[in-house]
Amino acid sequence: MSTRLRQLLTRRRLVPVIVVLVLVAAAITWLAWPAGGAFHRVPAMVAVQTGPGGRQTVELDTTTYVPDKASAGTPVPAVLLAHGFGGSKLSVAADAEKLAGQGYLVVTWSAEGFGASGGRIHLDSPDYEVSDASRLIDRLAARTDVIHDRGGDPRVAVVGGSYGGALALLLAADDHRVDAVVAQITWNDLGKSFFPNAAGGPAASGVFKKLWAGLFFSTGMTSQGQPAGADPSAPPVTPTVADPRCGRFAVDLCDAYLQASTTGQLSPALTQLLAKSSPASVLSKISAPTLLVQGQTDSLFPLSEANANAAGIAATGTPVKVTWFPGGHDGGSPSDDVTVQQQTLGWLNQYAARDGVTNDASFSFSNSGDLNLQTGRTATTELAAASYPGIFGSGAPERLTLSGRPQNIAAPPNGNPAAISSLPGLGSAGALASRALGAGGDLPGQVAFFSTPVLAQAVSLTGSAQLQLKVAAPSGSAVLFVRLEDLSTSGRPSLPQGLVAPVRLTGLAATLDQAKPVTITLPALAYRFQAGHQIRVAVSTTDQAYAMPVQPASYQIGLGSGQLTIPQVTTVGTGSGWFWPGVLGVLVLVLVLAVTAIAMVARWRRGRAVSTVDEEVADRPLVVRQLRKAYDDGFVAVRDVSFSVRRHQVVGLLGPNGAGKTTVLRTMMGLIQPTAGEILLYGHRVKPGAPVLSRIGSLVEGTGFLPHLSGLDNLKLYWRATGRPAHDAKMDEALELADLGTAVHRAVRTYSQGMRQRLAIAQAMLGMPDLLVLDEPTNGLDPPQIAHMRRMMRSYATDGRSVLVSSHLLAEVEQTCTHVVVMNHGEVVADGTVDEVTGESTSVLIGVDDPEAAMALLRHADEVLTAELASGGLVVELNPALNGLSRGAVVSRLVTGGIRVDRVSPRRHLEDVFLQLVGEDRK
C-alpha cells in the first residue's frame, strides 16, 4: 500500500466516508418502501404437532407483527416470513417491520433447530418445517383481523430467502391456502445444487460442493437466537447442543452428510433426504402466483435454480415472474436491493392485498461489465425484458469461434494444490485472491485455455453460454472445472461473478481422436464483454471449493465444435422505471449535505477548545451576552445584544427588517461566529458543531424537503442523518403537535405552502428538543392554522421546554408569547413580559356578565370617552383628564348598577408599543 493511500485511509478521513455511505444506503432504502403505518409486536412460544403423523410436539419461537389498523372490521392480508439457514426470527425482523408498516400482518418464527425454537434441523422437510408452517396458517385462520377468502382459508403470502425461499415453495405446493409466494435465492433440486454437473446427468454424477456444504453444516451445529419476548438488542442466546457430532441436525441428515463429506459422493440415503427437501418434485402443485428472485453473484444457488423453478411452476399456468439481482450468497442480500424490495411489495400488493392485479411477467436483471461512456470504466446497468427468456435466451444466440490446440493437463493427488475461483460468501473476492497467487489463479500444468478472437464489438451474454469439449482420460473418468473469463486489452483475466462449472465425466476414451464431444453448460450470467477484449474458456483439474479425486490423473482436452454459444435477450429498457433518477437526486443531495457536514466537522476540530459550563446559567435554555457581529465592510449587524430565555417561556423576538433578528438566530445555531460577546445554551458556549446544539430544534433556514418523498419519509431521512437512534425521534409526538394528519403519508410535492411549513415545524420538533427556535413559523398558514400554531407553541413550552419565535405578526405574538424582546438597529430596545412591555393604558377591557346593560350605564358617563362591545365584555376608552381615577369610577358605576365585573385589563396593544419604539426611528 502506498504512503498516499495510507494517508487517505486515516481515521479522520475514513469516518466521513463511512457516514456518506451509510446516508446513501439509508436514502435508497427509504425510497424503496413507501411510508408505513403503526404496528405492534406479539411474541409467543407456539406448540405445534410435527413429524410423520404429527406425533411430536415442538415449540416454535414466533413474533407476530400486527398493524394497529387491523381488526375484525378492517381485516388485513397476512405474510409468513421465513428466515435463511443459520438465522432465526430476528434475522427477518427488519423486513417484517417494513411489511407490517405496509398493512400486512406478519408472522415470523425460528424454524426447528434454530434460535429459541425446539426440535432439530430436517432441512425443510415436508414432515417437519413445512408442516410447522402449515400449522401457523391454521392459527391465522382463527384470527378475525386477517382477511378470509372462505372458511378456514386466510389470505396469506409466504416470503423467504434461501432456506426460507425453499420453504415458501414447498409450503405453497403442500397447502393451497397460500395466495402468493416470493422465493429468493433458493434451490430447485438440493441434490444437484450440492452435486452439480455442467455436463448434465443426475445429482449422483455431480461434483460435491464441499466448502459450501461444510459451511452449512457448521452453521447448523449451534444456531443463535432469543426466546419470544426477549429484547432484540440483547446479546443472542446460544442453545445447548446435546450431540456435539451433529449439533442441532436430525441424526439421519447428519449421518448422510458425514458420509458425503468423507467420500465426496451422493449416497442413496442423502439423495432421498435431499429430494424431500427440494421443490423440484412438487412445482406442478403450486397454484399461488410466484415471484422468483435469484442472485447473479451466487456460487451456492446460481441462476439456473430459479430457471428450473420458473419452468416447473409456469408449466401448469401459474403466474411466475423472475428477477435476477446483483447479489446472492456470495455478496448482497435481496433485502438490500431496492428493485427487489419494490417488486416484492408490488407482488404482495397484487396477489395478497389484491390491489389491482396486473399479471406482470416482465423480467429484470443487472448487466455487469457495461461501459460507462463518461468514465471509460465498466459499471452495472439495470435492464428489463418483456418476459422471462430462460437461461438460453429469447432469440437467436450469438456464436463465437473458439480456437486452441489440444492440451494435456494433470490432476494432483487429493486435488492439492488447487486453483481458487470462489470462496463461500465472498464470490469473486476469491478470484481476486487467486490472482495474487498467479495469472487467473491457475496452477501450471493444471489448466487448458481456449479463446475467441479479439472482439470487434461488445458482446452481451444473458444466460448460460455453451460449448463442446473433447476429453480423453486413460482412467475413463475425469473431474474438471470450466470457467468463462474476460481478457482485457492488456491480457489480464477476470472471472465474472466468480462462477465455475464443475464437470464429472465417465466412459471416456483413452485418446482424444476417439473422444466424443460433450456439451458443457456454463453458469448463467448477465455480463457484457467489451470491444477489444477476448473471451477465454479455462478448463482446470482443480478448484478448492469442490471435492476432487484422491488419485492423480492426466487428461487430454480439445475443442468439439469450436464454437461458443452466447444466449441473447431483447431488452425493452431499464428495469428501474422512475426509481433511479430519484435515487440519483437523493444521492446528490446526501453528498452535498455530507460534504457540508465534513467541512463543519473539520472546522470544529481546528477550533475546538476545552468546554466549560457557566453554572450560574446552566438551567437556562438561552443566554445572549453582549453579542456583537460586525462584517469586513464595516456594517454592524448587532451590537451589545443581551437577553435570555428561561424554562416554560414563549419568547417573541421582534423587530423590523434589518434589526438583526436573523443574525442573532444564525449565531445561536452556530452558523456564524460573533465578533464579540457570547451565546450560552444551558451554560455551554455555542460554537459550530457544539454537542449542546442537539438540544435545539429550529426552523430558520427554510425546509429543503425532497418533493417525491412523503412527509413522513422526509422526517425519517432527516432524523437518520443526525445519527441518533430512531426511538429518540419521538416522531408521534412531533406529528401530533404539528397536526399533519394523514397528509404526512402524501408526497411533499402535493403540499400547500402551509402544509410544508407545518412539516418543517414537525421536523424542528423531532426529538422534542429543550429549546424550539422558529423564524416566521406562520408563513403560508391560514387563520385556523395560525390559531393551531398558537396553541402548539403554548403546549410545547411545558415539561421544562421553551420556545423562541421571531415573527412580524405582532397580534399573534401578543396572544402567544409570555415574553418579548424588541430589537431595532441591531440593539435591544425592550425586554420583558408582554404586560411589562405594553404597560398602563387608557384603553381597557372590562369583562361583564351583561354587556348590553353595561353599555347603557356607561353611554353618558363622564369617566368614559368611548365604549364598544367586545367578546366577553366591553372595550372602554377612559377619560385621561381624571388622572387615573376613571378606571375605579367606571367599575364602581357598573357594580352599583347591578352589573357583575369579572376582570379589568389594559388594552394597549403590542403593535402600539412596537410602533412607538421603532416606527418613528426608521432611517
From TrEMBL:
Belongs to the ABC transporter superfamily. InterPro entries: AAA+_ATPase (IPR003593), AB_hydrolase_fold (IPR029058), ABC_transporter-like_ATP-bd (IPR003439), ABC_transporter-like_CS (IPR017871), Galactose-bd-like_sf (IPR008979), P-loop_NTPase (IPR027417), Xaa-Pro-like_dom (IPR000383), Xaa-Pro_dipept_C (IPR013736). The lineage of its organism: Bacteria, Bacillati, Actinomycetota, Actinomycetes, Mycobacteriales. The chain crosses the membrane at residues 14-33, 578-602. Gene3D superfamilies: alpha/beta hydrolase, Galactose-binding domain-like, P-loop containing nucleotide triphosphate hydrolases. One of its GO terms (molecular function) is hydrolase activity. Keywords: ATP-binding, Hydrolase, Membrane, Nucleotide-binding, Transmembrane, Transmembrane helix, Transport. Residues 622-850 form the ABC transporter domain. This is Alpha/beta fold hydrolase. PANTHER family: ABC TRANSPORTER, ATP-BINDING PROTEIN. Pfam families: ABC_tran, Peptidase_S15, PepX_C.
